[in-house]
Amino acid sequence: MKSFLTVWVLSALLVLTTAESCANPKVQATSYTPADAEVLTHIAYIAEFTLTCSNGATNVNLFADINGAVMPVIRSQDGSKYQVSWTESLKAAKKGDRPIRLYDEEGFAAVKRILERDEDPSSVKPLVQIEINYPGAYTGPWMKSEHLASLMIFLVFYLAYSSKNGLTA
């Protein structure tokens, strides 16, 4: 039992010491949201960004706060890029900017404590914030072609029937 506890403590210390803190972060971000949602049920938001620190830190673990939900940010294998993504239902997706607040491990711990107390996590200052713009997506024509064809058939039938009655009367 002692050896298991020792291994667990050493591995926890290894994880904590491998991450670095970032001073004066600078972010360059690109984002993607689908423009055509005609066959979709959910809208995907994808943000990819690079993080540059003035102290040269390259091994920074990040966490993202998106609409009150905190999730880990994925880092590429070479460690040069980060990515965060999520989905929303088509009805919940509103046009406009979506803020993504990024936290390092210290900020994540503070946000986690605040969320456990059911308080607003926006009181914790993020390491950096990026935004995804969702301009909206095309969900299809206002009137479907089969409905328009049915309406046209009804209109042609009505005109033919009324013309017939006008001639016979």
From TrEMBL:
Residues 1-19 form the signal peptide. Keywords: Disulfide bond, Endoplasmic reticulum, Isopeptide bond, Membrane, Signal, Transmembrane, Transmembrane helix, Ubl conjugation. It comes from the Eukaryota. One of its GO terms (cellular component) is endoplasmic reticulum membrane. It is found in: Endoplasmic reticulum membrane. It is a single-pass type I membrane protein. Its main location: endoplasmic reticulum. Transmembrane segments: none annotated. The keyword Zinc does not apply. Pfam families: TRAP-delta. PANTHER family: TRANSLOCON-ASSOCIATED PROTEIN SUBUNIT DELTA, TRANSLOCON-ASSOCIATED PROTEIN, DELTA SUBUNIT. Belongs to the TRAP-delta family. TRAP proteins are part of a complex whose function is to bind calcium to the ER membrane and thereby regulate the retention of ER resident proteins. Heterotetramer of TRAP-alpha, TRAP-beta, TRAP-delta and TRAP-gamma. This is Translocon-associated protein subunit delta.
